[in-house]
Automatic annotation (TrEMBL):
Listed InterPro entries: NAD(P)-bd_dom_sf (IPR036291), Sc_DH/Rdtase_CS (IPR020904), SDR_fam (IPR002347)
One GO CC term on file: membrane
Family annotation (PROSITE patterns): ADH_SHORT
Name listed for the protein in its UniProt record: 3-oxoacyl-[acyl-carrier-protein] reductase FabG
Broad enzyme group: oxidoreductase
EC numbers on record: 1.1.1.100
UniProt keyword annotations, A-Z: Oxidoreductase
Sequence similarity: Belongs to the short-chain dehydrogenases/reductases (SDR) family.
SUPFAM superfamilies cross-referenced by the UniProt entry: NAD(P)-binding Rossmann-fold domains
Source organism, top-level taxon: Bacteria
Region forming the signal peptide: none
Molecular function as annotated in GO: 3-oxoacyl-[acyl-carrier-protein] reductase (NADPH) activity
Length: 265
């Protein structure tokens, strides 16, 4: 099958105001793709739209300011897709949040907020947009997961759970849509150098995250676009990320021991 071509296509990208979503939106527009960019921070979205306008890149960027956990925002996205012809070629579920700290000391609100943003909202948005994706005849759903959706680590239990959910849902959805001309791609980065850690949910004071092979957001976005264009089912990014995933597959007891040592058990 030929590579997926962004030119002339319509895409929805969530979490588009910064990091991977911002970079991916710019890369898509540069390839003549019309992007509906969704994020909570309107000033950052407007900066992105202004920058794209100054650069005179081909394609368009249509900003929607809102929270994907809000059904009203999801309705706005659907209305914009419908107004553009009722056909959607690419959905990138990128918006996400995290939290750091032992589960025992965390709150119910942290668990629920992380699961809502990282899993429930993208799942419901995808369900809502499914008729338009099927109308494309050549659509891709790209879910941004994490290497921590393959192997959980201490002090990020809620985040790991949300990414395991994204991983399992992506696998099931891919099988369900096999005959519908809708490809489901799961991209699993390790640590991305972005503003992600500036917005941690109810995390311990001074909490930090140890890198297992960090990439800049631009590189993650480029690898994500390559995975989309090649219609890949799943990609794990960075050497460190691959080591974590494949070491766990080959020798789970060793990984259990290493992670227990890391957490001081």
């Amino acid at each position: 099958m030929a590579h997926w071509n962004p030119s002339g296509k319509l895409a929805v990208v969530t979490g588009a105001s910064s990091g991977i979503g911002r970079c991916l939106s710019k890369q898509l527009v540069a390839r003549r793709c019309c992007v509906i960019a969704v994020a909570r921070r309107g000033d950052r979205l407007q900066e992105l739209a202004d920058q794209i306008g100054r650069d005179r890149a081909d394609g368009m960027l249509l900003p929607i300011v809102g929270d994907v956990t809000d059904p009203q925002t999801r309705g706005q996205i659907e209305s914009q897709v419908r107004s553009r012809g009722g056909r959607l070629d690419l959905l990138v579920n990128n918006a996400g949040i995290g939290g750091i700290g032992p589960f025992e000391r965390a709150t119910e609100s942290r668990l629920r907020k992380i699961m809502e943003v990282n899993f429930f909202a993208p799942a419901e948005l995808t369900r809502r947009l499914m008729p338009y994706l099927k109308s494309s005849g050549d659509a891709v759903i790209c879910n941004l997961g994490s290497v921590l959706g393959h192997r959980a680590v201490p002090d990020k239990s809620e985040y790991c759970a949300s990414k395991f959910a994204m991983h399992g849902w992506s696998d099931a959805l891919r099988a369900e849509l096999a005959g519908a001309s809708v490809q489901v791609t799961l991209v699993s980065p390790s640590t991305t150098r972005s503003e992600f850690f500036d917005t941690l949910v109810e995390s311990d004071a001074g909490a930090t995250s140890k890198s297992i092979g960090s990439w800049p957001a631009e590189r993650v976005a480029a690898a994500t676009l390559t995975a989309i264009r090649k219609r890949r089912a799943e990609v794990v990014l960075s050497v460190g990320g691959k080591l974590l995933v494949y070491a766990d597959r080959l020798c789970p007891p060793l990984m259990n021991w290493l992670l227990q040592k890391r957490s001081g058990q």
